[in-house]
Amino acid sequence: MKTFLKFGAEVLNVFFPNRCVICLEQTVVWSADPVCAECKGRMELNNGAACRVCGEPIDGALPQDFRLCGECRINPPPFDQTLFSLHYEENAKKLIRQFKFYGKAGLAGTIAALMSARLNRELDMETVDMVIPLPLHFLRLFKRGYNQSYLLAGRIAKTFSLPLEWDVLVKTKNAAPQSLLRKSARQKNIRKVFEVVRPEAVSGKNILIVDDLMTTGATLREAAGALKKAGARTVACSVAARA
Ligand SMILES: [Zn+2]
Ligand SMILES: [Zn+2]
């Protein structure tokens, strides 16, 4: 039976070649994982010491509670912790671009598994009350067809048996894509675009917000700020990669 299934998988592979989304090499047998083992091995996992607030890699000699980067000392963000899984090098870039801009929604499982592994190690998940995906404006959602953060947040919530609150935080303005703007313009562009529609749902709660990529952190600052204003106790950010 096993040999038959393997043969079947190989025949399928001839007609519907299964290619790794990163290197585009054809994988040998029909595999459920869209990334080949070699590309996975080449990705730079974030395992080093980091600023406990924004996740910026930092001198590992200090105990975890004292690890705070210069930027977070001067201009503390409204979130309390950031956990990311990948450094944004070439392979991670390809992975996230395929996921976000090329309709490869099936990559959510692979990416969320990396994020969950990091969360499992670094955050006491028993203290988290809910998972909230960073919302997309409905026009952007309509265009893309899916919210990449929602797909990741859904899998993370399931892994840790936590409620997924997707309708608490909404994006009320369709700001220009942050990726098209210079760093200095990003904070201004994103100002006051998020709104908490059910403040009672987040009041006094420990929240985990989920997004695919953190660049300047301006978007996460705004989202966490809105949640804190609505009474959230703590806000941690889980992102797949940090540029
Ligand atoms: Zn590959
Ligand atoms: Zn920091």
Keywords summarizing the entry:
four-stranded parallel sheet, single chain, 10 helices, two-stranded antiparallel ribbon, alpha/beta, binds zinc ion, Rossmann fold
Word description of this protein:
The protein has about 240 residues and is an alpha/beta fold. The chain has two domains: about 1-40, no CATH class; about 45-240, Rossmann fold. It contains ten helices and six strands. The chain has helices at about 1-15, 35-40, 70-75, 90-100, 110-120, 140-145, 150-160, 185-190, 200, 220-230, and strands at about 80-85, 130-135, 170, 195, 205-215, 235-240. The strands form two sheets. The protein has a four-stranded parallel β-sheet, with helices on both faces. The chain has a two-stranded antiparallel sheet with strand order 3-4. Helix 10 (about 220-230) links the parallel strand 5 (about 205-215) and strand 6 (about 235-240). The longest helix has 15 residues, at about 110-120. One zinc ion (ZN) binds near residues 25 and 36.
